[in-house]
């Protein structure tokens, strides 16, 4: 948090059918509906999240991600980072408070991979769902499905990953926790963190800009990941791969698709990162092991299906 960027705050996904999407994200994944707005967007949160929402769903003709937002320390941080972005040649747009229900003003900009990022500092805080903030119980007893605890990170595909990593490092103060390099040393993937987590956002080099690979949600244990696999099978949800372990970050994971074709991940475990840690580097020829540590093979769908 060297420059005041604290954590991922929200992601807005496009879905083709809102009712089907809510069955997936609420009934299967266990997200909690927090609100709706006059635009028809639905706001969801994981049960441990203090802020009002972290996932916004918008019905549209094409799936994918509209934007991802990061919460900053205070409003002064927003002003300073906006000025620094402009000084670095990045155009910014201020979005008025209330455009997202319960959220303060946001500063939007586009990173070199083509993705829309936002910074904000103020959001209504409703507390951990079902347990409160004083003498809390261990967990709510009426959680559904996978019992997702929080929106954790997203993996984004687009061109010019090195420039994007540099922007997030130099201006937003994030750290490069892990990377993939080709035999000539060119950076093909960068896993960025604003905290002690293994990553808060990650990028993989891809010729087409602004593509979403997956949005990821945290579970508490490996057993919860196995239960998620059972629920995926029970509900005939389209599965991509897993359960397995990553080499990158060492998280325990399973990938699957929402009814619109957006890829989701739920995972547990994973590494930690301090600012004095060197980036962990993976060679491109070891990418199979880096992504799927156990079988060391990449399936074509994991590499090519994007929204």
UniProtKB/TrEMBL annotation:
One of its GO terms (molecular function) is catechol 2,3-dioxygenase activity. Residues 7-122, 150-269 form the VOC domain. The keyword Metal-binding applies. It holds the Pfam family Diox-like_N. Its cofactor is Fe(2+). Keywords: Aromatic hydrocarbons catabolism, Dioxygenase, Iron, Metal-binding, Oxidoreductase, Repeat. Its EC number is 1.13.11.2. Coiled coil: none annotated. CDD domains: 2_3_CTD_C. InterPro entries: Catechol_2-3_dOase, Fosfomycin_Res_Enzymes, Glyas_Bleomycin-R_OHBP_Dase, Glyas_Fos-R_dOase_dom, VOC_core, Xdiol_ring_cleave_dOase_1/2, XylE-like_N. It catalyses: catechol + O2 = (2Z,4E)-2-hydroxy-6-oxohexa-2,4-dienoate + H(+). The keyword Metal-binding applies. Homotetramer. Belongs to the extradiol ring-cleavage dioxygenase family. PANTHER family: GLYOXALASE_BLEOMYCIN RESISTANCE PROTEIN_DIOXYGENASE (PTHR36113:SF1), LYASE, PUTATIVE-RELATED-RELATED (PTHR36113). This is Metapyrocatechase. The lineage of its organism: Bacteria, Pseudomonadati, Pseudomonadota, Gammaproteobacteria, Oceanospirillales.
